[in-house]
Amino acid sequence: MDYHSPASFTEASALAAATTGVTRFLAGGTDVLVQLRSDMVTPDLLIDIKKIDGVSDITRTSDGGWTLGVAVTGAEMSEHGELGRDWPGIVEAMDLIGSTQVQGRATLVGNLCNGSPAADSVPAMIAAGVTVSVTGPDGERTVPVKDIPTGPGRTSLAKGEVISAVNIPPRGPNGGDAYLRFIPRTEMDIAVVGCGISLRVDGDTVSEARVSLGAVAPTVLLVEECAKAIIGTALDDAALDALAAAASAACNPIDDKRGTIAFRTEVAGVLAKRAAKIAYARAKGEQA
Amino acid sequence: MSKLHVSTTVNGDSVEFLCDPRETLLDCLRDKLNLTGAKEGCGTGDCGACSVTVDGRLVCSCLMLGVEADGKDIATVEGMAEGEELHPLQQKFIEYAALQCGICTPGVLVAAKALLEKNPDPTEEEARYWLAGNLCRCTGYDKIIRAVMDTAADMREAS
Q1: I need a surface site. Which of A96, A105, A216, B4 has the fewest CB within 10 A?
Q2: B1 touches chain A (CB under 8 A)
Q3: Per the database record, which ranges form the 2Fe-2S ferredoxin-type domain (chain B) (predicted)?
């Protein structure tokens, strides 16, 4: 295995494009090193992107959004304060992943590129409308987070492409987001179902909404029917029931040791309701 | 594959070693620097027995490559005592008998020290969540938590 720590994303991309073997990019390493050790993936080329300038920066953009470097850790996001006041759902989703030790290394982009349908940060990012900058042999492009995963362990990134930044949109006024997951214990587990919701209110009425479900299909879903169920409502019981029904209807889960198809389908509706209530309260400034 | 040269600081001392890029920081600490305090429990970041701090940040040394330590400041359990003088956490773990087989203890100590540096006055719930990534298969958690909480109280009084 060759190890490189290039000084730029262009160089990282060129290294990955030029090799014929298996390539992995190394940020926090909390998935890559486990795969390496268990012989699931033995890269011929390991490209550590942490020596690139700016990869650990959390920066407010001129339009009021945020740019996060690809090596920003969960712990750094939780400690930031201002980021969490804008986007509590994204920060709480990332914070749910693993232990204190894992939080010291794990990154949003790693969670995304690992390609797990149960990745906690991904529904939160999709709900928030996050995009990633991708550097490749043909230059840079911007891709919505929802278009990166294509199946368990697979992404739409082409050979030589590497994610070079996370772009979080401006929160704007009267907005709130939330992420909830179900696990059978309180800590240190993988989502059986996850739900991220971001919405905006106009008075008591939901004016915009995005609802994303994790661990109920081969990829994390953005469910438009869920958004339609609550837009234009004051999130009354009828709207919440319609939201839950739409969430359950969107599920196409697997049966496994963590949850049956019936259980995941039911819980997706329950979590959607609960996450919507939290996001709504945050949008109205009634809850942090 | 040729070995890579790594210069790093461990417990305040400058050290250098050569390693294969596949070797973890844990492998390097134990096998090259003879710092065998950090243990390999699971090797997959689940158990915390290999906990160390890197630039003050608590991490699993089994989830980090040795080459990534280049230029970093590493702290392990071996650096906790000052000569013969045990760290207050170590002293308290003995008093409370907060260990049984001892495999998890170095990782728990390093993690607890990191907690008290960040939050000198944790609630029991905060301490339990912080240490959730340090598994004790003898299941001695209560004594561990009591030792950590009592150390925190003593250290607050002393400061």
Answers
A1: B4
A2: yes
A3: 4-80
ipTM beyond cut 0.90: yes
How many structural domains are present in chain A?
2
The whole-angstrom separation of Cα A236 and Cα A246 is 15
CATH number of the domain at A107, please.
3.30.465.10
Give φ, ψ of A7 to 5 degrees.
-95, -5
The sign of the torsion formed by the CA atoms of A108, A111, A113, A117 equals negative
Domain interval for residue A159 = 2-51+58-168
Structure tokens that stand for A257 in this block: 């040791």
pLDDT digits (tens, 9 = 90+) for A226-254: 999 999 999 999 999 999 999 999 999 99
Tell me, yes or no, if B45 comes closer than 8 A to chain A by beta carbon.
yes
Look at B54 and A104 and tell me if their CB atoms are within 8 Å: yes
Which residue, of A168, A188, A208, is where some domain finishes? A168
CA dist A257 and A233 (Å) reads 37
Are A192 and A146 found together in one domain? Answer: no
pTM score of the predicted model: 0.96
A270 and A192 in contact (C-beta within 8 Å)?
Answer: no
In a 3-state reduction of DSSP, which class is residue A5?
coil
Claim to verify: residue B18 and residue B56 sit in the same structural domain: yes
How far is B47 from chain A, CA to nearest CA, in Å? Answer: 9
In tens, the pLDDT along A183-213 reads 998 888 999 999 999 999 999 999 999 999 9
H helices of A152-232, where?
224-230
DSSP helix/strand/coil, A31: coil
Q: Do A102 and B68 touch (CB under 8 A)?
A: no
Task: Give me the CATH number covering residue A195.
Answer: 3.30.390.50
Tokens 């990282």: give the residue.
A12
DSSP annotation of A272 reads H
Q: Tell me how far apart the alpha carbons of residues A221 and A199 are, in angstroms, rounded to a whole number.
A: 16
Category of A166 on φ-ψ map: left (φ > 0), alpha (ψ -120 to 50) or beta: beta
